Amino acid sequence: MNDVKPEATYLHGFSPVEQARLMKQARLAESTIFSNIDYTGARRVLEVGSGVGAQTEILLRRFPDIHVTCVDLNEAQLEAAQQNLAKMPWCQGRYTLLQADATNLPFSPREFDAAFLCWVLEHVPSPARVINEVRRVLAPGSPVYITEVMNSSFLLDPYSPNVWRYWMAFNDFQYDSGGDPFIGAKLGNLLLAGGYRDVATEIKTFYFDNREPARRKTMIAFWEELLLSAADQLLEAGRVTQDVVDGMRRELNDVQNDPNAVFFYSFVQARATVY
Fold first, then answer.
1. Domain annotation covers residue 1
2. How far apart are the first and last CA of the chain?
3. Second label for 237, Cα 20 to 30 Å away, from 107, 169, 227, 265?
4. pLDDT tens, residue by residue, 64-116
5. Which residues, at least 6 apart from 258, have a Cβ–Cβ distance to it below 8 Å?
6. Are 128 and 190 within 8 A, CB to CB?
7. CA–CA distance from 204 to each of 33, 197, 209, 270 (Å)?
8. Is residue 134 in some structural domain?
9. Domain that holds residue 254
10. Domains in the chain, number
11. 5 is a domain residue
12. Dist CA 139 CA 90 (whole Å)
């Protein structure tokens, strides 16, 4: 697969505020993301795009027999991961942090017996190359779990036109910057083309209405943080105006306090095996 996109831009940035948001996001989504992930029998897990260690902590907590080798391209994220994981006694001696390019991993073939990728491929210009490299360093029989966005699934009710304009600009900017905000639906094809077997996908959903008003309020408040993490870049690039940003914030506040609000967002988790 030949990609002609430029080097991807991480639209959320690397500020301390964004790093804290990633930790919050991992905890908020943990029960949904990890409900069917099973690394029983694995010992050497490769985490690609480990960021600030938010998912690493969950992996180490849930699977006490594993050691996680974390790979990320950004030095600031790795420094944050070191600080975050050092605070958690159950993580000590069970992880390695490495700065490396996921399309050219510094490992020998068959060095790991499992892999984990979460919210990573949406940000890389060559996801097929990453998937191929991960397969190269996995031993036969290794499971890989990949969790990815499917941003066309987002729905907020009552209808909020500024949120919608901002969301479309958000996705267009990510795509034009070398990423793919719709890659979740493509995971099956990518894994098959990469030589994986037993490829399975599951649609996972955040769906909150009057049945869970407290969780709905929490999710909408978090979603505002997620959207605002890209505001400076979108404004600088001329993709949105300040009026749209301000309108988006007003609408999210209104929906958050609406007694009949609905929040809906789906994403995709794939599982496959290396042979």
1. no
2. 21
3. 265
4. 999 999 999 999 999 999 999 999 999 999 999 999 999 999 999 999 999 99
5. 158
6. yes
7. 8, 21, 16, 10
8. yes
9. 16-273
10. 1
11. no
12. 26
